[in-house]
Amino acid sequence: MERVLKDDAVEEKGERARTASFVGGMAISDLVKTTLGPKGMDKILQSTGRGRNVTVTNDGATILKSLHIDNPAAKVLVDISKVQDDEVGDGTTSVVVLAGELLREAENLVNMKIHPMTIIAGYRMALECARNALLHRTMDNKENTDKFRSDLMNIAMTTLSSKILSQDKEYFAELAVDAVLRLKGSTNLEAIQILKKPGGSLRDSFLDEGFILDKKIGIGQPKRIENAKILVANTAMDTDKVKIYGARVRVDSMSKVADIEAAEKQKMREKVQKIIAHGINCFVNRQLIYNFPEELFADAGILTIEHADFEGIERLALVTGGEIASTFDNPESVRLGHCKVIEEIMIGEDRLIHFSGVEMGQACTIVLRGASEHVLDEAERSLHDALCVLSQTVNDTRVLFGGGWPEMVMAKEVDELARKTPGKKSHAIDAFSRALQAIPTIIADNAGLDGAELISQLRAEHHKENCTAGIDVITGAVGDMQKLGIQESFKVKQAILLSATEAAEMILRVDEIITCAPRRREDRMSIANEPGAQGSGKKGTPETEESVIKSSRQAESPCQRSSG
Q1: Which of 377, 385, 430, 445 is catalytic?
Q2: Where is composition skewed (Polar residues) in this entry (predicted)?
Q3: Is 93 tagged catalytic?
Q4: Tens digits of per-residue pLDDT, 394-411?
Q5: Can you count the helices (H) and strands (E) in the chain?
Q6: Residue 192's closest CA among 174, 212, 172?
Q7: Can you tell me the distance from the alpha carbon of 275 to that of 282, in angstroms, rounded to the nearest whole number?
Q8: Active-site annotation holder among 35, 55, 62, 92
Q9: 168 is a catalytic site residue
Q10: pTM for the whole thing?
Q11: Among the ranges 117-131, 207-221, 545-559, which has the highest mean pLDDT value?
């Protein structure tokens, strides 16, 4: 039979393809499984690039993002982890672990000669049943402000309890809730700036209203400005050079050089006058500001800030209500930023610029302090997760208990559905229930507890009416989640459930993997030696090289030859 694919293309069919997909999915799941729960362990990720950067984290999305993966099924799980991180911020490990457990159960069912489509149909029925079970048990306190704030605090502490900030989770939960409630229902986290400053301890971190820019105020400029009008710009404020590549200017005396310098200065002076004409008292630029324009601004009593990083000026423009300008001919078309006070502050040993009373009232800055850059990076990731979950919860105010309680509630309902369902689908529904119970089992195992024993106790507890039992990893026993205040956002749990099931379904449908042939780099010698590639001559012969040199010389213009 004629071969359709190229020689180096690889194709795997049927059982082999399905096994490769299952193995890839389960391997990724097993990789991040140990980071799940309050007692989950961290991973060290070391890059092989220059500097060999080290990252210490237990955030599922960060770990998976850093991996170079060859298995196509494993890439599907990495993608759902990224989407979970972008969508709701938390649950990045849970979603991968649940998808891995669903694949593990599906592998056993396939080995029992149950068709993948039957398994998918069973999983879909179980998914609908589990989702409805959660919907019936949600709590919503949006009408009662105090209770809702308490819910947000509990959710923040539950999210932070599995992170590096777990020792000070009450303190950081307070910071995160205050920052999110300032947004007044918006999910735009751009207004919350997280600034990292090494030194001190994590407990020294604080929330500050307004905006802090990690820059110093220039010499001879005002250190404090009230009722500031701010022009945020991205323009060249170095001496204007002749911007033509390779251009040369020849002069016959030093006085002509002085004339050129004077013309450059005059051009810069005109540009500065145009900027001052906007009626501003603070100028923030993305690029360098040379001494001469800085001197002109200082004489006009204008505070200048140079080399502000792009993310910094974008956020500054957002919170002060201005726009980034690059041309200054029409002052009326430029939107200036406004704030009440600009002043220099000290954090640790560093001087920074503080903008308070900004136009966007909900803007604030969380300053993180810590022992090292690695600790600060992980603290920032942890806090970002908490802020994402809280901002989503402010929009969708339904909450659930945590600590394995939702999984046990769903597993109980799915179990009952399996008993009522005839045919092979009931095996798949039963498998879905076992996959859900695997999450509390892993949480218990990671804490060094007897997972099987605790799950059997939990299952017995959940047959009672209105049970609120879950795993308390601190005491190592079954605890009351309501009393312990362990709560999670409904939106996060729903996203985990839907994403994991859909990813498992997608991998289950695979029955063939085709790996394309790699593109080969064409052999240049063979192309050069082809007839007509370079006239009639062969590449590399002296005659040809000489003729090429001659023709290139003839192509040169007289002025190019003279400059050469």
Answers
A1: 385
A2: 549-564
A3: yes
A4: 888 889 998 889 999 999
A5: 19, 20
A6: 212
A7: 10
A8: 92
A9: no
A10: 0.80
A11: 117-131
